[in-house]
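Hi R.,

Here's the chain you asked about this morning:
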Amino acid sequence: MYQLNDLLHLMARLRDPQHGCPWDLQQNYASIVPHTLEEAYEVADAIESGDFDHLPGELGDLLFQVVYYSQMAREEGRFEFATVVDAITRKLIRRHPHVFPDGDLYGSPELPRLDETAIKQRWEEIKAEERAEKAAAPEQLSLLDDVPSALPALSRAAKLQKRAAQVGFDWPEALPVVDKVREELGEVLEAMSENDPQAIAEELGDLLFVVVNLARHLKVDPRTPCVPRMASSSGVFASSSRPCVKRGGQSRTAISKSLTRSGARRRRPNDRRPAPNCTFRVDVAFHIHHNAARWAAEASTRVPLELTTRRAET
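And the predicted structure, written out as tokens:
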């Protein structure tokens, strides 16, 4: 069975200037990033679908990304794979004083340990210390500075809100957030009535950002509710669109009818409201699908600035 050193050797061979793979030799840090993200999502997909037979392969693909970056850095004299292993090992020892009280990886596990409250408090202290170490000017450090801008929009929004809540910028419970959702929805409708595309985009971004906050208060990962609904919608779309391929423009009508049936099954027996305009639903679905990530990302960019300003004023 091949070992980690074999993988490192393979990567060095692929990047050999004379005998390596032309494609691998052309890559740089930036060009590999999309592959890294794709491999991470494939790992997540294998776990969510319970496909543990293929999980080792997906984890191997993800590990290969780390090896790839390390090889490029080694060629430039920056660092190598062993540096990566050393860095993460030191970090995890430091972040787990309740497991390694004396800071020794191979120290005695019988030493006194912290209780759960002390563990959480110490964890936050350690994270704050690490952020300060990364900052060029620690006195100007913001609590939001090290939240990666490349995170998916929903994940970044949730992380920003969690950080802001640590210093009091938060609602005390979920119900006030529901009121805020209604307020933001009203502003979306107002922007729609004025037919202002820029305002619509901004207000939808604000609405999505607050919905993420509601999910956080309800202790729901904001990405999780989308997964089964997307799977259901994908099934409806696929089954509806296949017969329509030969009928060209009729496809949207057929999808609308299918979504109508799907929506009707979910309506309560005593619900006397008129059925929704399905063509409108499809148009909105396509529009949101293509723009939701951008709207949420724009909102998650604006809000940190507002939070930083508010924090400076307090």
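Residues 219 and 253 are 38 Å apart (CA to CA).

Let me know if you need anything else.
M.
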